[in-house]
Amino acid sequence: MSAARHAIAVVIVTACRASLTRALRSVFRQREVEGSIQVLLGVDCDPQGRLQELLAAVAPECPPNVALTLIDLGYSTSQRHGGLHSSFYGGSLRSALTMLADARVVAYLDDDDWFKEEHCARLLRAIEGRKWAYTYSIYADGNTGREWCVDEIESVGVGRGVFAQRLGGFVRPSALAIDKLQLLHVVHLWSCAAYAAGDGDDRRVFEQLRHEPHGCTGVATVCYAIDPNDAMHPHRVAFMRSCGIAYDGAAKIDSDRPAPPGQERE
């Protein structure tokens, strides 16, 4: 059996928001990975026509041990942009890119989140002998890059956190890595929304993952850009305030989630 070319692949699905450059740079800065990293960048849509500008800003910074693979179909596979698949966030792209990855271990990164420098190396160690692994997250400001605190309430693993009773726990996509050859039966679920609003594909995936052998890095290595338009936002703010953090309510850049009624963006 031939080996994959890369030690780990990172799948990023993008709507070409400005935050993409930060996400890519965070992968370029990964250290202590034994082998190379493949970045599969899938374009769901480019409504403002800025993909080339964004790539031009960061491509010269791509190090020799990182291979950047761009997948731009020229159309969206998400129903909200005229495609066939129900997932609000990229349609079938995350599933397709997982299959296309030239690495057995596949990690994920939303285009408004970013990795700490040791993220990939720690996930690779945590997944050894297991089917998937996760790391903890840091609540962060998507505008300034400021890190607020470690998320201790939602993306905290199997049987833990505020979703423990209803959903068996939770881990957000940007904190995950899977062995795709052992979890082929799960990969297609990235394209399938769980709720009428078009979200919840991550819940479908986690429901399958939580029954499988997994590891945890034990530390927080991914920054999650908190979004005031998300239903969990009041709970996050309450948690941060309970930790003594004077959260100022800053919004993240280019929110990809519709604002609640009466709070639409200009």
What is the CATH architecture assignment of the domain at 8-132 and 172-216? Alpha-Beta Complex
Radius of gyration: 17 Å
Work out the strand percent: 15-25%
Biggest sheet character: 9 strands, mixed
CATH H-tier superfamily of the domain at 8-132 and 172-216? Spore Coat Polysaccharide Biosynthesis Protein SpsA, Chain A
Strand tally, please? 11
Number of helices: 8
- CATH class membership of the domain at 8-132 and 172-216: Alpha Beta
Question: Unreliable runs, pLDDT <50, ≥5 residues?
Answer: 257-266
Helix content: 10-25%
Estimate the global geometry from the Cα principal axes: globular
The average pLDDT score comes to: 90
Query: In sequence order, what are the helices and strands, one letter per element?
Result: EHEHEHEEHEEEHEEHHEH
Cα(first) to Cα(last) distance is: 54 Å
Structural category is alpha/beta
CATH topology of the domain at 8-132 and 172-216: Spore Coat Polysaccharide Biosynthesis Protein SpsA, Chain A
What descriptors fit this protein?
Spore Coat Polysaccharide Biosynthesis Protein SpsA, Chain A; 266 residues; single chain; alpha/beta; two-stranded antiparallel sheet
Your description of this structure?
The chain has a domain at 8-132 and 172-216: Spore Coat Polysaccharide Biosynthesis Protein SpsA, Chain A (Alpha-Beta Complex), CATH 3.90.550.10. 23% of the residues lie in helices and 22% in strands. The protein has helices spanning 20-28, 51-58, 93-100, 119-126, 164-167, 184-187, 201-209, 233-242; strands at residues 8-14, 37-43, 66-71, 105-108, 114-115, 132-140, 147-150, 157-158, 169-170, 176-179, 214-225. Mean pLDDT is 90; it is low at 257-266.
